[in-house]
Amino acid sequence: MKSNYKPKYAEGEILVGVKGYSKDFVKQFGKTLGYELIGEWEHGDNVYIFRTPVNKEDIACKKFLHYKDFVEWAERRDVKLESRWKGIEKTIGVLKDLGDKCEISDEEYRKKIDEIIDSLKSTFA
Length: 125
What we know:
Blueprint: E1 9-18, H1 23-33, E2 36-40, E3 47-51, H2 57-65, E4 71-78, H3 79-100, H4 106-121
Antiparallel strand pairs: 1-3, 1-4, 2-3
């Protein structure tokens, strides 16, 4: 089945998955390639966010991928996908909370359902 999903990439940012090296090593490694480490990605282990020149993200990925001894993968950062994951995680939390409190008033139950709907709708940014 063909997907019609269209990512929304962060301008000037890429993700780099490394083979278990320390953050300090990764920071220095990126710096030697000319890229600034700006954070750790919250959706996976050993995945870092690097700043790149805008419209040069693919070139930066190729530079990182050249070093297969250190790098497992590198790709553009899809903030739309991240937003959806956050919405789903929040929804799961609300559902777990609701599962522990099923014997609440109809009004409170409706509020929880609305919170779930709002949480998922927010991922359509």
